[in-house]
Design brief:
Pfam families: CRAL_TRIO_2, Spectrin_SESTD1. Residues 1-135 form the CRAL-TRIO domain. This is SESD1 protein. With 677 residues, the protein is mainly alpha-helical. It is built from 17 helices and 6 strands. Helix 3 (56-69) links the parallel strand 2 (45-50) and strand 3 (74-80). Mean pLDDT is 78; it is low at 170-180, 208-217 and 431-435.
């Protein structure tokens, strides 16, 4: 990279102790001298032969070899000698002797005196200079440049061959070029290498060295820059043309592939695909049969899905080519796209129609099976004899029966809807859907659907008739149990009335008026009991009629009726006793009150003392009756109220009897005093 005072390039030849191959050195010099431009060569070279580590004979041979390699370009040869070992006279005499023959001046100089001939800034550190130089870095850059030059030149030839062959457009050319259509190296890689090399060369041109000292680029690098730029420009131009050629060929190849794939899809869909659908027309006669047909149809759909996926991919490719906007291909692409879409949509519609038909058939058979199971359950329930324990269980059974019948009605309605929907789909199954007349196959399907619906209707009608009979019987049983329950309730009510009569109807009244009121209330009380008894009798008579109708034995004839009669007999006896006591009390209170209310100034009214005796007799009879229990036909006895209640009622009667007795005594006193006077 250094220059002498004449601006000539400096060439340094370092020699070593080992044997130096003159052939290799000659080749190396030839290569190095080929790098500079002719203008640089015209300024001549200054050659520095570093012989400090070599022998004189080797140095002499190298100097003589320079005459044969670069005689015209060499202007000065500086042989750097070692400090000792060489004979100065011999060496000086030899070089002086060969000066005219060599054609250039040869001088022997020590390393420290080399600056007399060359500026220090143009010498490397090996010779005491300041020129920065990294041989390995220069070598690596040179190798990159050589590789780039070789690859780019070869690539340019290949791209030019490909591009020119494509321009001719003949089939023979295309066939011959197709064999070597791809370049031997990647153009992108070569371009990237060239840009990196150019960037490195330009960076070294404007930046200093790593040490920060200003550095002038070597002439070979300055010379390499325009070469690299020129090669890059040519590569970009040829590569751009190559990309366009590839794009056109790729588009043509893609179009041909699309045409081939489109015809494959169309031929399969119109051939094997349509044939598969032609063989599938039935709907099955059960859930299992419909499911088997659905599974078969899914297999057919799976095969179609693979071709539909190809259709989607082709459609996207065609759309991409249409968006590219190449006028010459638009018509052909649109025609392919339309043909492919028509066939695929028609086949997809047929698949969807078949799938919907099978789904409707499966739903129809599912509803039919559910309805059949419901009818079987209802029939089984109707075939079992009803033997409920009470009216509530009958009501529950009747409710369950009605719910099942309602469920059957809804099921039959759903079956009709599903069947009609399925019939509508079958009627819309035109011959174009499968490519043949399917009237015969459709008739079989229609007959099957109508047969299933008619059979379900007949079974449902038979169940309805049986439900009507069972409903009537169960309603009669409900009425029977109701009558029995109400009759038992009537017995309970009558028993409660008897209990109330014995425990609460105790008072006999403090006077005649109150006793009459109690007597009137008692009669009304008896009327209520009589109505209760009559109601129970009517209910028991109704149970007899219902049992005869149902041909069953009533439990009331052996249980409820005797209880009703027994309670009523007890109530009648008790009521008569109550009436007798109240009537006796009325007579007692009326007579006593009449006597007590009479004025003592009218003694003529009490001339007959028998009235007092009669009142006393009635009062005693009433008191005696209060202590006597009511005796029933079965020998059982019952008292009115508690002993304290009876004692209270008797106390009122005794007090009134005392008043009557006192009145009697008052009336007798005047009769006793009259004779004395």
């Amino acid at each position: 990279g250094g220059k002498d005072r004449r601006s000539g390039l400096i060439l340094t030849i370092p020699l070593c102790l080992e044997q130096t191959s003159m052939d290799e050195l000659s080749v190396t010099l030839d290569y190095l001298l080929s790098i500079p431009s002719e203008k640089c060569k015209a300024r001549g070279f200054t050659v520095i032969v570093d012989g400090r580590k070599s022998q004189w004979n080797v140095v002499k041979t190298v100097v003589l070899m320079l005459q044969n390699v670069v005689p015209a370009e060499v202007s000065l040869v500086c042989v750097v000698k070692p400090d000792e070992f060489w004979d100065k006279k011999v060496t000086h005499f030899c070089f002086w002797k060969e000066k005219d023959r060599l054609g250039f001046e040869v001088i022997l100089v020590s390393a420290n005196k080399l600056t007399r001939y060359i500026e220090p800034c143009q010498l490397t550190e090996d010779f005491g200079g300041t020129l920065t130089y990294d041989h390995m870095d220069w070598l690596n850059k040179r190798l990159v440049f050589e590789k780039f030059t070789k690859e780019s030149t070869s690539l340019l030839d290949e791209l030019a061959l490909i591009n020119n062959g494509s321009d001719k457009g003949t089939q023979e050319k295309e066939r011959s070029i197709d064999l070597n259509f791809l370049p031997s190296v990647d153009p992108e890689t070569v371009l990237q290498t060239g840009h990196e090399l150019l960037s490195e060369l330009q960076q070294r041109r404007f930046n200093g060295s790593d040490g920060g000292v200003s550095w002038s680029p070597m002439d070979d690098e300055l010379l390499a820059q325009p070469q690299v730029m020129k090669l890059l420009d040519s590569l970009r131009e040829q590569y751009t043309r190559y990309q366009e050629v590839c794009r056109q060929r790729s588009k043509r190849t893609q179009l041909e592939e699309i045409q081939q794939k489109v015809m494959q899809v169309v031929n399969w869909l119109e051939g094997p695909g349509s044939e598969q659908l032609r063989t599938q027309w039935g709907i099955g006669d059960s859930i299992r049969a419909s499911q088997a047909l659905q599974q078969k149809h899914e297999e057919i759909e799976s095969q179609h899905s693979e071709w539909f996926a190809v259709y989607v991919e082709l459609n996207q490719q065609i759309a991409a080519l249409l968006n590219a906007g190449d006028e010459e291909d638009l018509v052909e692409l649109k025609a392919l796209q339309q043909q492919l879409s028509d066939v695929c949509y028609r086949q997809a519609s047929q698949l969807e129609f078949r799938q919907n038909l099978l789904q409707a058939a499966l739903e129809f058979h599912s509803v039919a099976q559910d309805l059949s199971q419901q009818l079987d359950g209802l029939l089984g329930m109707l075939c079992v004899d009803v033997a409920p324990a009470d009216g509530a269980s009958i009501q529950q059974t009747l409710k369950l029966l009605e719910e099942k019948l309602k469920s059957v009605d809804l099921g039959l309605q759903g079956l009709r809807e599903k069947g009609q929907s399925l019939l509508d789909q079958i009627s819309n199954q035109a011959s174009w859907a499968y490519g043949k007349d399917v009237t015969i196959e459709n008739k079989e399907n229609v007959d099957h659907i109508q047969g299933v619906m008619e059979d379900m209707q007949l079974r449902k009608q038979r169940c309805e008739d049986m439900v009507d009979v069972r409903r009537l019987k169960m309603l009669q049983m409900v009425q029977l149990f109701k009558c029995e329950e109400d009759a038992a309730q009537a017995v309970e009510w009558l028993s409660e009335l008897l209990d109330a009569l014995l425990k609460t109807h105790i008072r006999l009244g403090d006077d005649a008026q109150e006793t009459k009121v109690l007597l009137e209330k008692h009669r009304k009380f008896v009327d209520v009991a009589q109505s209760t008894y009559d109601y129970g009798r009517q209910l028991l008579q109704a149970t007899v009629v219902l049992c005869q109708s149902l041909r069953c034995t009533s439990r009331s004839s052996g249980d409820t009726l005797p209880r009703l009669n027994r309670v009523w007999k007890q109530f009648t006896i008790t009521s008569e006793e109550r009436v007798h006591r109240l009537e006796t009390a009325v007579a007692f209170h009326s007579s006593a009150e009449k006597i007590l209310q009479e004025c003592p100034e009218q003694p003529e009214a009490f001339n007959e003392m028998e009235q007092f005796d009669e009142i006393e007799a009635v009062g005693k009879s009433l008191l005696d009756r209060l202590t006597v229990p009511v005796v029933y036909p079965d020998g059982s006895e019952q008292y009115f109220g508690s002993p304290s209640d009876m004692a209270s009622a008797a106390e009122h009667i005794r007090e009134k009897m005392k008043l009557v007795s006192l009145k009697k005594q008052q009336l007798r006193q005047p009769e006793a005093t009259t004779p004395e006077s």
